[in-house]
From TrEMBL:
Pathways per UniProt: Siderophore biosynthesis; enterobactin biosynthesis
Keyword terms of this UniProt record: Enterobactin biosynthesis, Magnesium, Metal-binding, Transferase
Descriptive protein name: Enterobactin synthase component D
Co-factor requirement: Mg(2+)
InterPro entries: 4-PPantetheinyl_Trfase_dom (IPR008278), 4-PPantetheinyl_Trfase_dom_sf (IPR037143), 4PPT_N (IPR041354), Enbac_synth_compD-like (IPR003542)
Membership in a protein family: Belongs to the P-Pant transferase superfamily. EntD family.
Binding of CoA, residues: R57, R65, T100, H101, D122, E168, K172
Length: 230
């Protein structure tokens, strides 16, 4: 399709330049408004693996690719990310990116690969205190849990949400570079805006490496991202 049109299930995308060659694009999606021709209208292929998926999953994918195309165009590129065997996005040559979606909002970070080594993006809804208390051991290292001692239950839950999101962004940023899967206890927040690797992923990413991250707190959750320049 030469002139893609926005399906009714998607809102107008919002684009923000975070730095030179680094764009964030977001839009809202409504699974209940997804139609049989929404992918065709948008000019975005529906992967075979999603043909029998529920409307929510299809809408998430459609919104993510819609934002990704907008971001690529904003950087002077064309195309839509494909899908790798591990289900991660396959970006056009010369561009890198990261996609996240949660509770009706899709967001994408797209970057010029000549300027940026890697990026990772994640958004999470605030975890309620009761659930946070159950997740602390799973998501936090002993050091991170010690930092919660004088916090209220709500403060602890918000801290958990932030660190959970930051570690998700870290995985999205480093997995494409290392090909190594790692988990929540393999990185630790020792400084307010840094995550420290607690295991060696490869020669370029040894134990002790500090990776900066940024975040925005919102009414309903938090957005975190990692963007490492070359």
């Amino acid at each position: 399709m030469t002139n893609p049109q926005r399906p009714a299930c998607l809102s107008q995308p919002h684009q923000e330049e975070l730095a030179n060659g680094l764009l964030r694009v977001s839009c809202r999606y409504q699974p209940e408004r997804l139609l049989d021709d929404s992918f065709l209208l948008a000019g975005i292929p529906l992967p075979v693996t999603l043909r029998t998926a529920v409307a929510k999953r299809k809408a998430e994918y459609l919104a993510g690719r819609w934002c990704a195309r907008e971001g690529l165009q904003g950087l002077g590129a064309t195309g839509i990310p494909g899908v790798n065997e591990d289900r991660s996005p396959r970006w056009p040559k010369g561009r890198i990116g990261s996609i996240t979606h949660s509770h009706g909002i899709a967001e994408v970070l797209v970057a010029d690969a000549e300027r940026w080594l890697t990026v990772g993006l994640d958004t999470e809804q605030w975890v309620v205190p009761e659930r946070a208390a159950r997740l602390e051991k799973e998501l936090f290292t002993d050091y991170e849990r010690q930092q919660l001692n004088r916090m209220t239950p709500l403060q602890r839950a918000n801290r958990l949400t932030l660190i959970f999101s930051a570690k998700e962004s870290l995985f999205k940023a480093l997995y494409p570079l290392t090909g190594k899967r790692f988990y929540f206890h393999d990185a630790e927040r020792r400084k307010p805006d840094r995550l420290t690797l607690l295991r060696t992923l490869n020669a370029d990413w040894p134990k002790g490496t500090e990776i900066p991250f940024r975040w925005r707190e919102r009414q309903h959750g938090v957005l975190s991202w990692i963007a490492l320049p070359r």
